[in-house]
């Protein structure tokens, strides 16, 4: 894949917006937790709740799972030695596609030319940072917090409490003082999700996101804590009628009516193969 085939875009002009919506259904108990206790429930680890004490899944947790899985796939199919260009490690300063030191040098070099600086940053950023964002780039993928699909039917009794204990590796028995309780959301609970994809390349960026969603549709990923203990299994569905696309050819109509063109998931899924093949051959 040469540079003419793939040109990263910015937000200087509106080109394309896709909105995908659907449901996430917990197949096992789900624990997307705050990391601290809840005085009302009395548990040591409490799930995220809104002001009505109903559970929700932060959009950052959903997006983080998507990004982490897609990064691992890209690193698996791209040529060895090209990890930094394809999918850098954003948590390791030395392994970022664009480090803080390099960014400082670019700012000095293009301090009087903002457009040239933006172009240079895009050119040095890896595919994942161009799509999901970095300290220097805005994300093209926006994920809303996942709220209950049927909040009116929710009741406090739908929470479950699981007890955990630390095991002494020598005696293979429960270690004293490490018993804890964690709150989980019951299997079968459904949440609504919505992803907005702005100005992403339809052939080389959007299909990577579809790849991650396909894994979620198949139930191959897990979310939240306690995954090794069987928690966090889920599946997503894509709402064919609730998803929409806005691009240059229907932008005026969208501005008049507020409605975009219908999106057919099966057609989107077909783009994954060509995108992955191009990545493996670049």
Q: Which residue ranges are poorly predicted, with pLDDT under 50 across at least 5 consecutive positions? A: 1-5
N-to-C CA distance: 5 Å
How big a fraction of the residues is strand? Answer: 15-25%
Largest sheet entry: 7 strands, antiparallel
Number of strands: 9
Order of helices and strands: EHHHHHEEEEEHEEHEHH
Q: Over the alpha carbons, how many angstroms does the gyration radius reach?
A: 22 Å
Overall pLDDT: 86
General form = globular
The figure for the number of domains is: 1
What structural class is derived from the secondary structure elements?
A: alpha+beta
Counted by DSSP, the helix tally is 9
Helical content, roughly? 25-40%
Description:
The protein is an alpha+beta fold. It has one domain (16-281). 30% of the residues lie in helices and 20% in strands. The model is unreliable at 1-5 (pLDDT under 50). The chain is built from 9 helices and 9 strands. α1 packs across α6 and α6 packs across α9.
């Amino acid at each position: 894949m040469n540079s003419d085939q793939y040109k990263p875009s910015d937000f200087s002009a509106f080109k394309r917006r896709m909105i995908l919506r659907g449901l996430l259904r917990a197949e096992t108990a789900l624990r997307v937790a705050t990391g601290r206790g809840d005085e009302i429930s009395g548990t040591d680890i409490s799930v995220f709740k809104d002001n009505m004490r109903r559970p929700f899944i932060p959009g950052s947790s959903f997006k983080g799972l998507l990004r982490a899985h897609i990064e691992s796939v890209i690193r698996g199919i791209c040529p060895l030695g090209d990890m930094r260009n394809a999918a850098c490690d954003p948590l390791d300063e030395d392994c970022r596609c664009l480090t803080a030191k390099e960014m400082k040098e670019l700012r000095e070099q293009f301090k009087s030319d903002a457009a040239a600086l933006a172009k240079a940053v895009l050119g040095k950023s890896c595919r994942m940072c161009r799509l999901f964002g970095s300290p220097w780039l805005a994300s093209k993928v926006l994920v809303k917090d996942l709220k209950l699909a049927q909040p009116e039917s929710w009741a406090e009794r739908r929470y479950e409490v699981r007890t955990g204990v630390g095991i002494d590796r020598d005696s293979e028995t429960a270690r004293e003082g490490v018993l804890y309780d964690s709150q989980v959301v019951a299997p079968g609970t459904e949440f609504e999700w919505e992803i907005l994809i702005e100005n992403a390349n339809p052939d080389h960026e959007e299909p990577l996101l579809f790849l991650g969603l396909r894994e979620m549709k198949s139930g191959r990923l897990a979310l939240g804590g306690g995954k090794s203990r069987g928690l966090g299994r889920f599946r997503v569905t894509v709402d064919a009628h609730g998803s929409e696309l806005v691009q240059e050819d229907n932008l005026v109509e969208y501005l008049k009516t507020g409605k975009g063109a219908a999106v057919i998931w099966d057609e989107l899924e077909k783009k994954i193969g060509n995108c992955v093949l191009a990545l493996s051959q670049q």
